[in-house]
Amino acid sequence: MILWDALRKGAVARSIGFSEVGITMPGLLLVFGILVTGDLEAQSLAKKHEANALRIHSISVAILSQASKDGGKTWSTLNEFSVRRSGQRERIHRKQWNAYKNEKMIEAPSFGEILANAQEERSLVGFGVTSLPKEPINVGQMELDDKRISGQISPASPFTSYGYKGVWSTFALLTPMNSTLSEFLQASGDVHPLEEKDEKNNSVWKLKLLSPRTGTACEVTISPAFGYAISKVILYDKKGDIIENMGIQTVKEFREIKPGLFLPVEIESRASSDGSQPRRVLFQNYEVNEPIPDTEFQLTFPNGIIVKDTRDGIRYHIWKEGKPEQTFKEPSELNKWMREKKDLAKAGGAQQNRIWRWVVLAIGGFLPILMILWARRKVASRLA
Q1: What is the pTM of this model?
Q2: Is the confidence at residue 244, as pLDDT, over 50?
Q3: 20 to 30 A Cα–Cα from 184, which one of 123, 213, 232, 321?
């Protein structure tokens, strides 16, 4: 059906030099042959790319996301990630120092934790914090006063050749819009890889694909010289223009971690059309297929936080001692409980203030009496 629609609209015919109405039977066979060959080549590239990713059974890496306001002379850190994955367990620790708002960099400290496994995904997020917690999160370090900290429990995410769809697949493997290369091929119909040479004269393959989520276009470059890793991604908006914010992402340097397994050391992103505000992602301290302690894959929610649970409908837990102390099915019930708790806290504070006022008044009234008695006793002792 895809082939027929393409022929009927004349798109394929024009691409190889035939007019829309002048396709002969030999021409039709030629078009059909090109389409099938191109699609098989694209599938072969995707399989080789994902087969290399499957060689990673466990990984530990630190990721720095940085931005520059002066064309790359100086860099400010936006986020720092620590990624650990072993089998189907993945732990991500995030610290954020700065963020962009209306194209301006502002201080926005926050932190986040994600623990994903085959059963569920847990996450913990804190905003407006005055100091970022050390890694791993120690519940004893966290004081909930004046901090917006919340948790969430979600159903398990799909596990792919990249692991879970998150920080690792998006940053390190350059899988655009958090989808696998196979998913892009499925959404794109017939894809014709174009072979070119990169700046180092290595052969690369370019694939023009459609996003399975948004339908927008992107161009992915695969480098056989680097284990069929993705070396460049160009993202387009719905109008067909390159996305202004980080629309072009290019691997500046690969490192051969294991024989034939190449992973990025630095990825550069263009964050503005004139290149004056570039961004980059740095990868440090790679450890691949080395044992990782089980203690790295534990995430305990602090006492007193609200945990949103979406595993079976939506519920809201008040967490205490490693489990829900109270559970609400509706946001209105939770809001009512929070208002009542706030009112009780205010009432308790007011009662405590009243007690202290009475204590102060009592002490203030009792001290003069003590002083008078002390003075009389001293006078009496002198007279004696």
Answers
A1: 0.73
A2: yes
A3: 123
